[in-house]
Amino acid sequence: MLIGTVVLAGLALGLCAVLVLTDRLLPAGKDPVTDRIESLLPRIQCAQCGYAGCRPYARAIAAGEADINRCPPGGEETVRQLAELLGREAVALDTTLGSANMNRVARIDEHNCIGCNRCVPVCPVDAIVGVQQTIHAVIAAHCTGCELCLAHCPVDCIDLVARDA
Amino acid sequence: MKFAVAPGPHTAPIASVPLTMRRVLYALTPAALAHVWFFGSGFAINFFVAAVTALVAEAAVLMLRRRPTRVPLRDGSAIVTAALLAFAIPPLTPWWIPAFGAATAIVVAKHMYGGLGRNLFNPAMVGYVVLLVSFPAELTQWIPPRMGDLDYEHLGFLAHLVYSLTGTLPPDFTIDALTRATPLDLVKEGLRSAQTYTEIRAGSLFGGVAGRGWEWINSFIALGGLYLLYTGTIRWHIPIMLLAGLLVPATLLWLIDADSFATPGFHLFSGATLLGAFFIATDPVSAAESDRGRLIYGAGIGLLTYCIRTWGGYPDGMAFSVLLMNSAVPLIDRYTRPRIYGRD
Amino acid sequence: MLEYTPDRRPTGGLRLPAHKEASVAQPIARGFVPRTLILALQQHQGPATTPVVSPGDRVLKGQVVARARALRSAAVHASTSGHVRTIEDRLVPSVHAVHRTRCIVIDTDGKDEPLPPGKGARWPQDPERQLKRIRDGGIVGLGGGVFPTAEKLGAHTPCKALIINGVECEPYISCDDVLMREEAEGIIDGALIMRDILSAPECIVAIERDKPQAIEAILEAGRASGDASLKLADIPTIYPTGGERQLVEMLTGEEVPSTHYPSEIGYICQNVGTAFALHRLVRAGQPLLSRIVTVAGDGVARPQNVDTPIGTPIGELIEFCGGYRGEVDRLILGGSMMGYALPNDEMPITKGGNCIIVAARSEVRQDFSERYCIRCGNCGTACPARLLPQELLRAARSDDHEMLDEFGLTDCIECGCCDVICPSQIPLTEVFRNAKFAHARYQRQHVFSAETQQRYRRHQERQRADARRGKDLQDNLRHEVETDEAARQRAIEAAIKRARQRRSHDADQD
Ligand code: SF4
Ligand code: SF4
Ligand code: SF4
């Protein structure tokens, strides 16, 4: 009886120790949760969630610091998928954050572009091409409609148009 | 002119679950009648109790789960489960045995896994196995078949009913005097106590190839099975492979040593072999999904049954083999997925 | 002509009630001229054609009304004489659904006046010109796929065999059957023309076994042609052996890889109707003006096959067949398996329109209530593509796109077998059709997102690198500036010194 109890308890403790040790010692590798969350996000890097991009936001969700309803381009669908992945209740999308959506792309009005080149570095996906003093253009196939470039144009010549227009 | 549209295909469906279940019940009818003829009305009472319990249990669970009840109750699957259960348990038995078995089958084996189509295990067999391990005494009280023992006096319908409801037998009867071991029991015990197979089967419970009465019931079951095959309700893969899985080792070992192994004919017509091959293992829900998977699945059940009968602790092993192979189904499915047309 | 039975059994499939007796009992009805023609500019798979007539123009039978500008296109002709009423957008049935497209609407004048025979009607020898002639002749696959015939015949992969598809396995459709009975010589001639264009070593005509008269007629015509490369394969009567991929597997044992067309592995499949149309183009100079359409079902007075001018409004065609009879429940374009229901009868017959089923209630599926999948596996057994529809169903209903990929959603040919055989009456095919849209969207989205992520990474890396380089640059500059300072001081000092020296030197000289 006593021997049995001792052996079992010892076994349990020993296994606990092994578990804890493996958890501590083995390299953490990539962060699978963050990866999976990120793969559900639209990954258009619009920063409307208030983080510098999708991955930081994914990290924040994984760490429990951010709610799952902060991605406007992803919309309700993304909230639903995130809720499913994380086993949480789906919450309504926070609509105050922004209105970026993936069905629109930026377009530069050639008549007004002054070639200041300020929009080029702010585009997170390098969808704007052009050099100083020439007309710039948006590669529609690469543009995510994240709206980041809009505020940086001194002459307000960037518009959002429907993706297929 | 305007017309209503509907999605294709427009050809009306050519199969339906209620039809399938109805055919299964038709196919079981001759065997059921034979059962009643050989063993008395116990079967009918048990079937009735099991069917009512199954339907009530199903309705109750569906309501608790807030699911529509009408359609599932009418599909007949609960009745088929009840019928299979009634074939599995002894005819002379208290009413709560079929009731408990049917309730377990429906509530635990079927609905706890998500209802028809989601259950991993064959409900009837789960019900039977739970009964077998919980109430071994009741489940081994088989009565001998008509013609097995000429001095034997069979109970009438009323006496059966009274025993079922109250557990009392007519005066002058004792349960021990009424019950006999089944042929499978006899063979198992006999072989264990160093009798030869020929000696064992000289006993009065044996008929031409297997247990008296049993061989007939099982023949009718085989007939029903052929009807199912003919109507396309079941396909040949599982029954044929199950029988092969059982008969091939049986034949081989019997050829090697005819004294200590039963004949293949005995295996074929005893216990639940044919019922299992045509009616239990072919339950679509808990079987493997592809044809290749079904070959493996069927053969596995046959082989396991033979092993349990010959070397295991139970006289018949059909229920356990079916459940064991049920649990192997996800694995089988995984490795027998058909290669999609045009893909490597 | 050799007749043989392929020794392979088709994968999956179903034996279905044929429902063809009524329409094959009549000979093809000819000479039908509708009051209106609605000629869609896009009746084939490929870019639309460009109209070359304007409203008010008088057009003659056989006159080109819209030209094929692109290679993967086929011209459209006026199928009878009349006046162009208008050119406008209309709903037109295409391969899988009704779509809105530009149409030339013609009021016919009933004179059926043909274009005077033009010059240069001789069939050219040069393959390129032959293909152009086929394109200009408006010939497309008449089996329902409406693939431009010129494009198929111009395939670059060497052709191992030309397969003439007369299987016609779908319920109700009998237009190929009657055509083979009545025009076997023309079909064989067309097939041989195709074989020559492709330089195919062999030409197999495949016909389902339940059409003995068609088989007989084709055999006779084949023997009469005396061509040794012709063969006739009789195919078991199982739906859908007439599908291109299924037929190729059945006849050759080869499977067409998922992502390829049969032509890419050297098998060209052509419908018998297409062969006949080609024969007419080559021998009589007549472009594709009409096609045989089966009008079937219990809801039409006289079920029969009609030689129908392309562009005929379906209502007029039904009128020609005696009009509606009794209560009509559904109007189906195509067979009862792959066909789809039309919202009205004002749409035209296009080049791909092989059959119109005017269905009474009792003929078509009415009950759309479904039960749980009982995993019976019937669907998998019936699936000609060897899919597991029950697994696909689960994946589709839970939006599991990885599983959809794994279980081969895109390999589903939407034949409907699983659907019809399912004892729980689950509308599997409809689920898969919808899932295909969702899946395609998901795939696009997924690919876009993944690329975007890549681009963002590179953007970030570059910015970081830029920042680093920028700092280095500044450091260097400062360093340079600092060292420069000393150097300049020295240089200045040196210059002053030199200046002084010079001055003193000059002073010395003075
Ligand atoms: S809001 Fe923009 S940056 Fe934030 S997760 Fe969504 S797409 Fe990415
Ligand atoms: S045929 Fe229907 S019920 Fe049977 S497995 Fe397929 S989907 Fe499920
Ligand atoms: S519809 Fe698709 S899944 Fe169903 S049988 Fe046809 S090919 Fe297979």
Largest interface, counted by CB within 8 Å of the partner chain's CB? B-C, 42 and 69 residues
Please name the CATH architecture of the largest domain in chain A. Answer: Orthogonal Bundle
Mean pLDDT across all residues of chain A, rounded?
84
Structural class of chain B: mainly alpha
Per DSSP, the total helix count of chain A is 5
Set down the secondary structure blueprint:
The complex is a heterotrimer of chains A (165), B (344) and C (510).
Chain A: H1 2-25, H2 32-40, H3 54-62, H4 75-86, E1 104-108, H5 119-122, E2 128-129, E3 137-138, E4 158-162
Antiparallel strand pairs in A: 1-4, 2-3
Chain B: H1 17-39, H2 42-64, H3 70-74, H4 77-88, H5 96-110, H6 123-134, H7 136-139, H8 157-166, H9 175-178, H10 183-192, H11 197-200, H12 214-230, H13 237-256, H14 264-269, H15 273-280, H16 291-311, H17 318-335
Chain C: E1 2-4, H1 21-24, E2 36-40, E3 50-51, E4 58-59, E5 64-67, E6 76-77, E7 82-93, E8 98-108, H2 127-136, H3 149-153, E9 161-166, H4 175-182, H5 184-198, E10 203-208, H6 212-225, E11 230-235, H7 244-252, E12 267-271, H8 272-284, E13 290-296, E14 304-309, H9 314-320, E15 330-333, E16 340-341, E17 355-359, H10 378-382, H11 389-397, H12 401-406, H13 417-421, H14 428-509
Parallel strand pairs in C: 1-11, 9-10, 9-12, 10-11, 13-17
Antiparallel strand pairs in C: 2-8, 3-5, 4-7, 5-6, 7-8, 13-14, 15-16, 15-17
Helix pairs in contact in C: 4-6, 5-6, 5-8, 11-14
